[in-house]
Amino acid sequence: NHNDSESTTNDASSRSGEAMRSSAWYGGDDRNAYLHRAWMRRGVPDHAFDGRPNIAIANTASDLSPCNTHLDEVAQSVKNGIYEAGGIPYNLPVISLGETTVRTTAMLWRNMAAMAAEEMFRANPIDGLVLLGGCDKTIPALLMAAASVGIPAIVVPGGPMLNGSFRGRPLGCGTDVWKLSEEVRAGKLDPEYFVKSESSMIRSRGHCNTMGTASTMACVAEALGMTLPGIAGIPASDSRLLEFAHATGRQAVRLAEEGVTPASVMTKAAFHNAIIALAAIGGSTNAVVHLLAIAGRVGVELELDDFDRIGADVPLLVNLQPAGEHLMEDLFNAGGFLAALGEVRDLLDPTAVTVAGRPLVDELDGHEVWNRDVIRTADDPLQRGAGIAVLRGNLASSGAIIKPAAATPALLRHRGPAVVFDSVEDMHARIDDPALDVDENSVLVLRGCGPRGYPGMPEVANMPMPKRVLDKGVRDMVRVCDGRMSGTAYGTVVLHVTPEAAAGGLLALVQDGDLIDLDVEARTLTLLVSDAELATRVPPASLTEAYGKAERGWSQLYIDHVQQADSGADLDFLVGASGPAVMRESH
Ligand code: FES
Ligand code: MG
């Protein structure tokens, strides 16, 4: 105590065995401790500096990340919980990424957000972290940062929007934008209806209400053990989110006192459970790159093939868009994520313990299913064996993925002639051209969209259907791309083709009319062109000229250091841990 008044709050520091990290700033009475304490005295009490946990709330609230704008209110509940448990909370704004708005693609900045957050966690006098995310990249970036810095951490997902509805029909974020816009292009939907539905889609605060990347990463964070069990999927507008946020603040203080690190929670067993969950909910393919990147930070050996090996036979239980029909509010009312996970309890690793201190499997007790149309049983699933499949072949020697839950079953085995596009712009310019030689048996190829070729690896793999094909009433065809696809999208889309065209992948050598063979059951993706013929080909200038140029700053760093999708598209120098060690003095 640095003044003579008596501290009356409960003394969290007295319960801790070891000195808090922040004591390196605030402990003692020398000149530097004076500096550190004096400047922080803006209403924080004297006992903030007595060795109790100082907890940063890493807050991605931003008016330009519309899915996260409500997080300041959530942060207040977290603060209340931290105070109540005897800790001291600090709001720490971190880089935020609004998926729909940020160019060129929010994914270009995921690693930057992770790097910046990691460094601010390291640089500051903090003992624990509450990670507030929502929109697609925000939870992955914060988990990557926390994993690398190794400070005790817990996630609060911001929660999905309430169901949208227009003229008596539910509107799913993202998914219905893709669907309705294709109907307009096919001449089946009045363009006015389409435009009018716009103001009904986003009905409340929160992130996308489909099982897109944000909903997926909230569930995946919970399956990893990094949230209080039961929080994933509570709608952003539901009062229970604030109750959970308060409880999370309390738990963050305990985690700091006990020194529970992210690495001790995110074990190989935890990743196993995350992959089971990803398959059972029909989650976003983006979770594959995010989980690989997080594993790389925390030192868990996770490979692309693990997603297939662990997840492929898992039944799809959750009937949510884009794989099914309902929305996140329906899942919550049907019993929620843990009720769904309870249906595949036998597949989970019982050794994985969550931040709440008990095995995840024990947290499934008491979560019942109230609506069997929304959450199916493992015996009567929406689809059997719906987990992400990993394909290999000359066209993807380091792997490509496909999400059977979002695909047309009849197209999972298909052979057809390639129609090749060398950039997103090329695709948009020609896709509806009446002269384009394409029919429903063609395989659309879009290349130059991998992590390096189009820095950030944009969500363009679900190319719009050519008008000629749409007009025939066809709504899906095989598409192959080295980019990603929105978690809200659907279709028979082979994505994350690795190596990408810009990294020497065979994709760069495909020509119009070449036969491509897709066989998901055999897990193959093959370009049926002889090696002798391929040896004579070089990537066309129209492709290589479209590749991203490293001009300066972040894009320069990114292009020089980004890894391929099968390693999570992290930067090579960010893999692994920096650790929580206190850095050198500033004065
Ligand atoms: Fe933010 Fe979908 S755009 S979650
Ligand atoms: Mg997205």
TrEMBL record:
Question: What's a Pfam family in this record?
Answer: ILVD_EDD_N
Polar residues bias: where? 1-16
Give the top-rank taxon of the lineage listed in the UniProt record for this protein. Answer: Bacteria
Domain Dihydroxy-acid/6-phosphogluconate dehydratase C-terminal: from-to ranges: 373-569
Q: Which InterPro entries is this protein grouped with?
A: Dihydro-acid_dehy_C, DiOHA_6PGluconate_deHydtase_CS, ILV_EDD_C, ILV_EDD_N, IlvD/EDD_N, Sugar_Degrad_Dehydratases
Q: Which residues cross the membrane?
A: none
* Dihydroxy-acid/6-phosphogluconate dehydratase N-terminal domain span: 52-361
Question: Residues annotated as region Disordered?
Answer: 1-23
Keyword Metal-binding among record annotations: yes
- What keywords tag this UniProt record? 2Fe-2S, Amino-acid biosynthesis, Branched-chain amino acid biosynthesis, Iron, Iron-sulfur, Lyase, Metal-binding
Coiled coil where? none
Q: Does the keyword Metal-binding apply?
A: yes
Family per similarity comment:
Belongs to the IlvD/Edd family.
UniProt-recorded name of the protein? Dihydroxy-acid dehydratase
Q: Which organism is it from?
A: Herbiconiux aconitum
